[in-house]
Amino acid sequence: MNTPRTLYTSLLLPGLLLSACSATGDDGGSFQVDDGLYLRAGLTHARPSGSDFDGDLALVGSSEVIFIPKIDDGEGMDYAIGYRIGGVGFELAYQNLDFDGSLGGTPGFDMSRSAYDLNMRFNFLRERRVQPYFQFGLGYVSAELEDVASDGYSTYDADLSGLCLPVGGGIEFFATPHVSLDLRAVNRFAYYGDANGTPIEDKLDGDSFELGIGLTLSL
């Protein structure tokens, strides 16, 4: 899977937006984002950093074996709905990313990962159009690994699930009080405790480092 050119091309947009905002002149301290509902959609590129997804681990059960593939970088979409009170946002976020995977150097053992997060977000320098922010949250994460499980007669997909802790921050560029673009970096600490409905004694480390860009509409 090659990183979409649109993701890297879109990284140029905040600079263009910032230039456009600067061209409007000094806000004189009058710039303000109202409290209320907001919607966000974005693109995310993730690099696995967890130690267990390196292709060297197998989960052996009484009736099946699940081989954990080596997982490479992944990309996908993320969405959020939130409510902003002052400089604090409370949001429900969803993310779905696709990763290339391999076993013993053989490709095709890919992973699709979904995450559902409850986040708190803190914006600073709220009187300015360019606002840094910090966020953290708690989430549920699930992953489908393609053709990595076997019962001795056939191979099939494996489903993993667990908890995750996304922690990070970014910069938000406001074109207007209702439209903004942001760049973010997030460390997602993920721990898979279930495989095909069976608890995993030693939880799998599925951490990742994520870079994203998103568009937010404040209603």
Shape: elongated
CATH architecture grouping: Beta Barrel
Q: Indicate the proportion of strand residues.
A: over 45%
CATH fold label: Porin
SS elements, strand count: 11
Taken in chain order, the helices and strands follow as: HHEEEEEEEEEEE
* Total of domains: 1
- How many DSSP H or I helices? 2
Q: Averaged pLDDT, please? A: 87
Rg, alpha carbons: 20 Å
CATH uppermost class: Mainly Beta
Helix content: under 10%
Gap from first CA to last CA: 36 Å
Q: Would you identify the regions where 5 or more consecutive residues have pLDDT less than 50?
A: 1-26
Major sheet characteristics: 11 strands, antiparallel
Structural class: mainly beta
Task: Note the main attributes of this structure.
single chain; 219 residues; mainly beta; Porin; 2 helices; 11 strands; 8% helix
Structural features, described:
The chain is mostly beta strands and 219 residues long. It has one domain: Beta Barrel (Porin), CATH 2.40.160.20. The protein has helices spanning 5-10, 13-23; strands at residues 36-48, 54-60, 65-85, 88-103, 106-107, 111-123, 130-150, 155-176, 179-195, 198-205, 208-218. Strands 1, 2, 3, 4, 5, 6, 7, 8, 9, 10 and 11 form an eleven-stranded antiparallel sheet that branches. Strand 2 and strand 3 (65-85) form a beta hairpin. The chain is elongated, with a radius of gyration of 20 Å. The relative contact order is 0.21. Residues 1-26 have low confidence and may be disordered.
Give the arrangement of secondary structure elements.
Blueprint: H1 5-10, H2 13-23, E1 36-48, E2 54-60, E3 65-85, E4 88-103, E5 106-107, E6 111-123, E7 130-150, E8 155-176, E9 179-195, E10 198-205, E11 208-218
Antiparallel strand pairs: 1-3, 1-11, 2-3, 3-4, 3-7, 4-5, 4-6, 6-7, 7-8, 8-9, 9-10, 9-11
